[in-house]
Design goal:
Elements: H1 6-10, E1 23-27, E2 32-37, H2 48-61, E3 69-74, H3 85-92, H4 97-116, E4 121-125, E5 128-130, H5 132-139, E6 142-145, E7 150-152, H6 167-175, H7 177-186, E8 189-191, H8 192-197, E9 203-204, H9 210-222, H10 226-238, H11 244-259, H12 262-272
Parallel strand pairs: 2-3, 3-4, 4-6, 5-7, 6-9
Antiparallel strand pairs: 1-2, 7-8
Length: 282
């Protein structure tokens, strides 16, 4: 009898997980997770505690046995206005260097957790996405906006550098070096039309249809070959820092692993039988 796989033993359902600093729910029998920032009276600003809890949730998602795609959104007509002025910004002005570094590492760890979690993340961005809110959208895999979405990496407006939470690494890869330089140096707002034209937003949808469209896309992804989706996300992340030759070899190995899955066999059998495949993520 073969020994149990220790990685399988670590996997667990997260549908029933309790979150205290934001909303967490699932749909589609637990396959789609919905994270809702729930401080509408403060435009869903973040606190030290919400940063940490978001980081922990995204880290746990790497071991989820049920959740296959994530939607990240905000309540009350806004996405996220960044760090709360009175609960984060004001305390930071009184901290010493070691405490400040601990905080900036915490915020960076949230972005690293988002990029490392295998599930595709769809950001449904309505209204304000500023500062760390813009970073949360940037760190997602797919971004949807509404006509009233306004995005700003406004760190320079408060005397800080634009190099915050990975912005100088991620944003140029999404919209290009020159455009990223402009947004990060000036801190100006980017409206939804400009954001879509520049490739930051994948689509602009009406505000009343935003969440439904995000959930539709997430459901489509959750019903797809989730192991292969995780491999695609991982390769998109890892291949930034390698040569073309290394990237091609990495993709050869990744694709060979996908070809060994039951999802690949099921897709072939469905094609041969002229029916739609049903993927089970293995």
């Amino acid at each position: 009898m073969s020994a149990p796989d220790p990685m399988l033993a670590m996997r667990r359902p997260l549908a029933a997980r309790t979150c205290t600093r934001f909303g967490w729910s699932t749909a589609e029998a637990g396959r789609v997770g919905l994270i809702t920032l729930t401080r509408p009276e403060r435009k869903n600003s973040l606190t030290f505690e919400s940063y940490a809890e978001l980081r922990d949730l995204f880290r746990e998602l790497a071991y989820a046995s049920d959740v296959r795609a994530i939607v990240l959104t905000g309540a009350g007509g806004n996405f996220c206005s960044g760090g709360d002025v009175f609960e984060i910004i004001e305390p930071l002005t009184r901290m010493a260097a070691p405490e400040l570094l601990a905080f900036t590492r915490l915020t960076g760890d949230l972005v690293k957790a988002m990029r490392a979690c295998p599930q595709p993340i769809i950001a449904a961005v309505d209204g304000v996405a500023a500062g760390a809110g813009a970073i949360l959208a940037m760190a997602s895999d797919i971004r949807l906006a509404t006509p009233r979405t306004r995005t700003a990496f406004l760190f320079t407006r408060v005397g800080l550098a634009g190099c915050d939470m990975g912005a100088c690494a991620l944003l140029p890869r999404i919209i290009g070096q020159g455009r990223a330089s402009e947004l990060l140096l000036t801190g100006r707002q980017m409206d939804a039309v400009e954001g879509e034209r520049w490739g930051f937003y994948n689509q602009i949808v009406d505000a009343d249809a935003l969440l439904a469209e995000a959930m539709r896309r997430a459901t489509d992804l959750a019903n797809g070959p989730t192991f292969a989706h995780a491999m695609t996300k991982g390769m998109l992340q890892q291949e930034w820092n390698v040569s073309l030759e290394q990237a091609i070899e990495m993709e050869a190995q990744a694709q060979a692993l996908c070809m060994g899955t039951q999802d690949f066999r099921r897709a072939f059998e469905a094609f041969a039988a002229k029916r739609s495949p049903i993927f089970e993520g293995n």
